[in-house]
Amino acid sequence: MSQDWDAGRLDSDLEGVAFDTLAVRAGQHRTPEAEHGDPMFFTSSYVFRTAADAAARFAGEVPGNVYSRYTNPTVRAFEERIAALEGAEQAVATATGMAAIMAVVMSFCSAGDHVLVSRSVFGSTISLFEKYFKRFGVEVDYVPLADLSGWDAAIKPNTKLLFVESPSNPLAELVDIAALAEIAHAKGAMLVVDNCFCTPALQQPLKLGADVVVHSATKFIDGQGRCMGGVVAGRGEQMKEVVGFLRTAGPTLSPFNAWIFLKGLETLGLRMKAHCANAQLLAEWLEQQDGIEKVHYAGLKSHPQHDLAARQQRGFGAVVSFEVKGGKEGAWRFIDATRLISITANLGDSKTTITHPSTTSHGRLSPQEREAAGIRDSLIRVAVGLEDVADLQADLARGLAAL
Ligand SMILES: *Cc1c(COP(=O)(O)O)cnc(C)c1O
Fold this sequence. Notes:
This protein is α/β, with parallel strands linked by helices. The protein folds into 2 domains: 2-266, Aspartate Aminotransferase, domain 2 (3-Layer(aba) Sandwich), CATH 3.40.640; 269-402, Aspartate Aminotransferase, domain 1. It has helices at residues 19-25, 51-58, 73-86, 97-108, 123-133, 148-154, 177-186, 199-202, 236-249, 255-266, 268-287, 306-312, 327-337, 367-373, 389-401, and strands spanning 90-94, 114-118, 139-143, 159-165, 190-194, 212-216, 230-234, 292-296, 319-324, 342-343, 353-355, 379-383. The strands form 2 sheets. The protein has a 7-stranded mixed β-sheet with strand order 1-7-6-5-4-2-3, with helices on both faces. A 5-stranded mixed β-sheet has the order 8-9-12-11-10. Helix 5 links the parallel strand 2 and strand 3. The N and C termini lie far apart (57 Å). The relative contact order is 0.12. Bound molecules: pyridoxal-5'-phosphate. The site of pyridoxal-5'-phosphate has 14 residues, from helix 4 and helix 5. Residues 96-98, 122, 124-125, 165, 194, 196, 216, 218-219, 228, 230 line the site of pyridoxal-5'-phosphate. Homotetramer.
């Protein structure tokens, strides 16, 4: 946002401050009224002092707002805050997480280019590649997330980008992001990381060598299940392409949603710590229970990539998955016996949610595809919220008793 007034003394000095301070302060610019809250700019357009001023702003010679599909001060504040938190030169907000992923591919790929995607990505991400980008001549192949030599072997001369989610949903598999970035860069490809599950509070992929980060802000960035949004963050020269696409195609973020996300970010660090603490306790407890065959949580010593998770992430996240005895019937009885936890596929909410992946989020896969993805009928996913952990444990105990 451009400032014609002398607000220097009031603007926050953010040199060298810590993550939690950036989460509260970054992107906060003050208007002449110097309000303490984050102002919401509900306007589609902006007026210019003179015709010459309008011409200069349209030409980009003078910074400033022209039209809210291009820039809006509230949206810009959110973008600047996310950029600060991800350690990105620039971030740009989108209408949803899917719009962020679409914008990345539309910005960097042309017909004839090849994209490598990890097998375990979000279902709509696979649909976007399979049903739409393939139709426009983008080649797509899938690689098991953790298999570094598999990634290396799958890269072709026309591979433009590698797309991963780490940790994966719902099984909490990881990829070594720094190692994968090296593999991509050695062959001239970009690494894009969907950082939705960790948020920058737990993982900063750009600092590990990734080129671009995407988010569904709908999840933990909002944190309370209120609205939809997304964001793309990366280096200036790459973000120029993404900004150009979004301005032209239009899936940009509403200022109201940006304002909600600014409020969400203020508590992101605290919330992620609390999500992780609750999830760790429940995962450890579940692992001790008779009715449970296996718990998938990177915070457990039994997780095959526990050491990588401890190195790469500042916390193990909110999603705990587990396999119960009794197959699908057991899993459904478990889910139906809970009274407090919401039966919904959403995550990243202060409310804990429970879902049966093989008949919901992964229900469209064939049994063979589910088997290959490790999604058993006995698998339950819990996205742990912010309720008191003893109450959550008591609710899961109801599920166990029903097995
Ligand atoms: C939800 C989600 C998306 C899609 O985001 P929307 O905001 O629903 O469009 C993408 N990636 C991951 C990992 C998600 O969980």
